[in-house]
Amino acid sequence: MKHKLSNVNTFRAFRSTDYKLYLTGRAVSQFGTIMQQTAVVWVIYTITHSAFMLGVAVFAEQFPAFLLSVFGGAAADRYSRYKIVNITQVASMIQATLLAALVLINRYVVWEILALSVILGIINAFDVPARQAMIHDVLHDEADLPSALSLSSSTASLSRLVGPALAGIILENFGAGMCFLINAISFGGIIVSLAFMKQPKAAKPFGSEKDVWVELAEGFIYIRHTPAILIMIAFVAVAGLFVLPYTTLIPVFAKIVFQGNATTFGYITSFIGAGSIAGTIVLASLKENAPLRKILLGFSIILGISLIAFSRISNFHIAMIIAVFIGFGSVAQFTTSNIIVQSESDPRMRGRVISILIMAMVGMTPIGSVIVGGISQKIGAPNTLLFQGVLALCVVLLFYYLMNFKSYTHSQPSR
Description:
Layout: H1 17-48, H2 51-78, H3 81-104, H4 110-137, H5 145-173, H6 176-196, H7 199-202, H8 212-224, H9 227-242, H10 250-257, H11 262-284, H12 292-312, H13 316-330, H14 332-344, H15 350-379, H16 381-403, H17 405-410
């Protein structure tokens, strides 16, 4: 099925007031979320001085989402997505508040931070599928979907640009507890935005009298019989396992390779975020009939080469230029796959398909993070990152063969 993008302007999704509310609230919340993620990994590394524990920290937050996201997808297809997102945002606010309280009173140990990370992962397993599927509910026209998803990804990239740098400054001057407290407050942004929306409240869930296990099985059967979507999910899973866990090594580069501190860590992450913004702008500006699958592989080639270059550079300023290309290359992995999967999946299966896509990304990345952290302990962060860059290029070759563009696109009926 050849995917088609609308040729009107990139910002056409803004025709919907509900979408503007959704995007604004989500942007506010994401700034806080990125600050909390930055603070968590820095606190863990400061306490343990272990790259392996950095992988464990990522695993603790993301692996529960891998285990439970299919249930979150089934819930998004069966119940009101609006109500689910409201509940998950309140729960996330409580989690961030507890984390802030522990750190501010200076009575915390590593296992408590990891336990709260697990709780957040469970919340996200239900939040992300419902929130992603709800984008359809806030649009006036399904043709606005590529614009909406790209703009949503742009706000996430902007938060990755500004959030880590701001978190680094706050970490140095006020401590991690303040980052967690700011995150708790930021959830108010999306809660208020949801209160002013109209369409999602009126949207009726598909509902079902089937057993939830039957619905979950239907989701996997649907994907198995839809090769276009199956290949995309497999690509995301492989990239999530072998390539995208490069983020686990960033604190090590900041402290050991570049002899820096929390501010250095924030700068590296922000430059990666700058590249992500550039990538999402490119994706949002694509013309009709753009070959998204080929574009995805092209971005992946950029990512692989950039990881190899970053692993060999010791000059901080040159490394920051390369970090921009890392962000540029990595943003397409989920954004482009998400556009393709959401556009090409059956509306009644969309929540479950999205949850399986998220499971592929969020499930493989924490496993990969633990592996990457362990390997880094043995051969060092630079050599580990070099290995990941080479693997990224190997993944491109593998999936170029699997996608087999000419026969693949010609065999699919056009929408």
